[in-house]
């Protein structure tokens, strides 16, 4: 099977409308229709890893830049978004291959990596060395800093150019429409 896989990385600006439609269809299927327009928008504007097989798009993930305040300093965070694998090819390592590409981008271009993992996805990220963030998660909203307790317990981080982040200090992410994280 691996001989027929084609891995491509591209910035959102280099994706054709058909690529975006295929990505959205994969995400809608993988998340059982619970992937909103805002969720899709969160995965745009950065680098994408697209894995194709003979049947089409088999796996996808993106990394976009976010800002997060940590220990009194704003840092560039490579935020992993929109990771999905087509149902008929799950449990064959495709999610890991896509994640490996995204990790290389995070490691070489950002102060740290972060993502919000589903229960199913958390196993993949933990096995790859991502660490569950034990501290507070917040966002800088229109009215100031807002704590996001519903995000605590599902945000994973990866050290990159800035080295490890210190868990006693909270992570304050930039605000965005829809689900903040």
Provide an overview of this structure.
By secondary structure, the chain is α+β, with helices and mostly antiparallel strands. 25% of the residues lie in helices and 36% in strands. It is built from four helices and ten strands; from the N terminus they run E-H-H-E-E-E-H-E-H-E-E-E-E-E. The protein has helices at residues 17-30, 37-42, 94-109, 119-127, and strands at residues 6-11, 47-53, 56-70, 73-85, 112-116, 131-132, 137-141, 144-147, 155-159, 171-174. Strands 1, 2, 3, 4, 5, 6, 7, 8, 9 and 10 form a ten-stranded mixed sheet that branches. The longest helix is centred in the middle third of the chain and has 16 residues, at 94-109. It is globular. 34% of the residues are buried. The model has no long low-confidence stretch (mean pLDDT 94).
What's a concise summary of this model?
It contains four helices and ten strands, in the order βααβββαβαβββββ. It has helices spanning 17-30, 37-42, 94-109, 119-127, and strands spanning 6-11, 47-53, 56-70, 73-85, 112-116, 131-132, 137-141, 144-147, 155-159, 171-174.
Strand content: 35-45%
- End-to-end separation: 35 Å
DSSP, total strands = 10
Kindly state the mean pLDDT as a whole number?
Answer: 94
Shape: globular
Oligomer: single chain
Uncertain segments: none
Largest sheet: 10 strands, mixed
Q: Structural class, judged by helices and strands?
A: alpha+beta
H-E string? EHHEEEHEHEEEEE
Which radius of gyration do the C-alpha atoms yield?
Answer: 16 Å
Specify the number of helices: 4
Helix content: 10-25%
């Amino acid at each position: 099977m691996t001989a027929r896989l084609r891995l491509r990385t591209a910035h959102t600006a280099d994706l054709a409308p058909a690529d975006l439609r295929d990505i959205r269809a994969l995400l809608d299927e993988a998340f059982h229709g619970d992937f909103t327009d805002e969720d899709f928008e969160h995965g745009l504007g950065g680098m994408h890893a697209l894995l194709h097989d003979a049947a089409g798009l088999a796996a996808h993930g993106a990394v976009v830049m976010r800002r997060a305040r940590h220990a009194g300093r704003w840092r560039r965070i490579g935020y992993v978004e929109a990771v999905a694998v087509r149902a008929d090819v799950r449990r064959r390592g495709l999610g890991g291959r896509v994640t490996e590409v995204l990790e290389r981008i995070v490691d070489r271009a950002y102060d740290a990596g972060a993502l919000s993992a589903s229960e199913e996805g958390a196993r993949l990220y933990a096995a790859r060395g991502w660490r569950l963030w034990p501290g507070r998660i917040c966002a800088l909203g229109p009215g100031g800093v807002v704590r996001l307790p519903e995000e605590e317990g599902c945000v994973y981080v990866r050290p990159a150019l800035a080295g490890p982040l210190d868990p006693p200090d909270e992570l304050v992410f930039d605000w965005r429409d829809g689900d903040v994280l």
